[in-house]
Amino acid sequence: MLCVTGSPLRLITWLAVPVLFISAVLGLVGLACLLLDLPGEGVGLSTTLFGAATAVTGVTGGAVTWTSAWQRRWLRLAYPAALLVAGVAVDGVRLPVAVVVAVGLPSVAL
Fold first, then answer.
1. Rounded to whole angstroms, what are the CA distances from 29 to 12, 38, 44, 59, 108?
2. Spatial separation of the C-alpha atoms in residues 54 and 70, rounded to whole Å
3. How far apart, in whole angstroms, are the C-alpha atoms of residue 29 and residue 34?
4. How far apart are CA 37 and CA 40, in angstroms?
5. What CA–CA distance (Å, rounded) separates 59 from 85?
6. For the chain, which ranges sit under pLDDT 70?
């Protein structure tokens, strides 16, 4: 993210932070798999990764410029909780290394 620490985040940016975080981490893991010549095994999603994304979302939630009170009360709590539930649901799913690298490396650059 190209924002200065302490400056307010737009809501759409805050919603994108965990998705970009997850794809960036998976992209780097996929790149490591390619460098170690392990592309056949794939990259697995884990609850731990989604837990870290939930923590990042929770921490950055205080810097969002909320447009209404209901967003501040409900969306700030429900979105990280939904991420964590999604992480538990997809735990162990394997993704192809080529797809992970193709999606993840641009996320790292972004």
1. 26, 11, 10, 24, 12
2. 20
3. 9
4. 8
5. 18
6. 1-6, 39
